[in-house]
Design goal:
The structure is a single chain. The protein has 12 helices and 8 strands. The protein is of the alpha+beta class and about 400 residues long. The chain has 3 domains: about 160 residues, Orthogonal Bundle (Globin-like); about 60 residues, Helix Hairpins, CATH 1.10.287; about 160 residues, Heat Shock Protein 90 (2-Layer Sandwich), CATH 3.30.565. The strands form 2 sheets. A 6-stranded mixed beta sheet has the order 3-2-5-6-8-7, with helices on both faces. A two-stranded antiparallel sheet has the order 1-4. It starts with 17 loop residues before the first helix and ends with a strand. The structure holds protoporphyrin IX containing FE.
Length: about 400
């Protein structure tokens, strides 16, 4: 068998985050009408599923690139059954979280058996083509779009499962290295601080020597902070969730950033909305301190970006602006952070959550991975979009009842 994923990854179970599931449904634009359209077709089209299943495995068994994924006729028999059930669910089930989790598990099984992600697209195309003929044959051509959306949801979940696997593997080596190094470096650093203290206490230092000591101490503190962040990052997060008011978060962030942003002439505008309406504050469910940490990291990045824009336009004054919106939605809450910086390059967008990936000379490459880790641990999702007009991060957080 052609192994793409490592043997030890078989059975690896990660969960599909609720935020991601919400995002996929929204992106595809799947609605209750689509569920009804699919259910209406189901009874008529189901007898033809056998054909779809037969065509699917014929195609993959006779293709030399995929034939070696299969173990033998027993397995194919089993798979024919599961693909048949999959098709029935496609036409009959609600798109709730449980549905998406079942789909996620299918993606995980494919990763586990070493099936390469590129084959998913051709496979889905076989299903699509076969179903199109069947749906039209039974006079449901007008409802075809609902089938398309249903297939898109499944494909997106399966592809996302591969993406998460790759991100996970890419993080493993630097994480192991980081954690080992951080522990090794912390002890000698503590000893450096201790010796510096002894020197300062005992010596009759000149002004210049005292300045050198103070600068040494600052640099050591900087290394220690990075090391602590690295160690924190390698530890699993235990959340202490509660319902809090977004105004409480605004106050805390304003306090943190007032001086820094003020000095750089950057304005921070906070808004709080429920649906279309502005409100003074909205309720958010999550770990206040962790979410604050995530927002601090994002605001710091936004601050740097906004300053970069001023540099980009040759120092001409265009006011740096960061907008933060807290919104209550039906399924939880959304936090939106938008800056008017110069925007990020496509390649940086793809790599921004990688550990130690940074575009700033003084950056540690830890800020955004920490943000992602915090949002993931809330079972939320984070999406970024960027253009020459600025960058926007949108965080979805599930509500208390999940
Ligand atoms: C539209 C794309 C596909 C769908 C919807 C699909 C569906 C499924 C389902 C429902 C399962 C059972 C998962 C479970 O055990 O919970 C499965 C497993 C599997 N699929 Fe797919 N599949 C797709 C593409 C492919 C392709 C392209 C291949 C190979 C060329 C393949 C090979 C396998 C194998 C080897 C297993 C594991 C079977 C086992 O546990 O022994 N699948 N798939």
């Amino acid at each position: 068998m052609n192994r793409w994923a490592d043997e030890k990854d078989r059975g690896r179970r990660k969960i599909l985050h609720r935020g991601l599931f919400m995002e996929i449904l929204e992106y595809v634009g799947f609605s209750e009408d689509d569920v009804l359209a699919l259910r209406k077709m189901h009874e008529k089209v189901e007898p033809d599923f056998e054909e779809v299943v037969a065509r699917f495995y014929q195609a993959h068994q006779s293709n030399r690139h995929t034939a070696n994924v299969f173990e033998g006729p027993e397995q194919i028999k089993r798979l024919e059954k599961t693909l048949g059930q999959w098709l029935v669910e496609l036409f009959t089930k609600d798109r709730d979280f449980a549905y998406c989790q079942r789909r996620w598990v299918i993606g995980e099984v494919h990763v586990g058996v070493g099936l390469k992600p590129k084959f998913m697209f051709g496979a889905m195309n076989i299903v699509r083509t076969e179903l199109y003929d069947i749906v039209c044959k039974h006079g449901f051509a007008a409802d075809w779009n609902s089938v398309e959306k249903a297939l898109d949801i499944d494909l997106m979940i399966m592809v996302q499962s591969y993406w998460d696997y790759v991100t996970d593997v890419k993080l493993r080596t630097p994480l192991a290295l980081a954690s080992g190094m951080a522990h090794e470096i912390r002890n000698p650093l503590n000893s450096l601080v201790l010796n510096l203290n002894l020197l300062e206490r005992g010596g009759n230092f000149t002004e210049v020597e005292r300045e050198i000591c103070s600068s040494l101490r600052q640099e050591i503190e900087r290394i220690k902070t990075t090391m602590t962040e690295m160690i924190d990052f390698t530890r699993p997060i235990d959340l202490v969730c509660r319902s809090f008011q977004s105004s409480e978060m605004e106050k805390s962030l304003r306090y943190q950033f007032a001086e820094e942003m003020g000095a750089q002439h950057i304005s921070m505008e906070f808004t709080h909305t429920i649906g279309e309406h502005e409100d003074g504050s909205v309720a958010i469910y999550g770990d206040f301190d962790r979410l604050k940490q995530a927002l601090i990291n994002l605001l710091q990045n936004a601050g740097h970006a906004v300053v970069d824009r001023t540099k980009d336009v040759g120092g001409e004054q265009e006011e740096g602006k960061i907008e933060i919106n807290f919104a209550k939605t039906r399924r939880g809450s959304v936090i939106n952070i938008k800056d008017n910086g110069p925007g990020m390059k496509g390649k940086d967008m793809l790599r921004m959550y990688e550990l130690f990936y940074t575009t700033r000379a003084e950056g540690t490459g830890l800020g955004l991975p920490i943000v992602k880790q915090i949002i993931d641990s809330h079972e939320g999702s984070i999406q970024a979009t960027s253009s020459r007009a600025g960058t926007e991060f949108v965080i979805h957080l599930p509500g208390e009842d999940k």
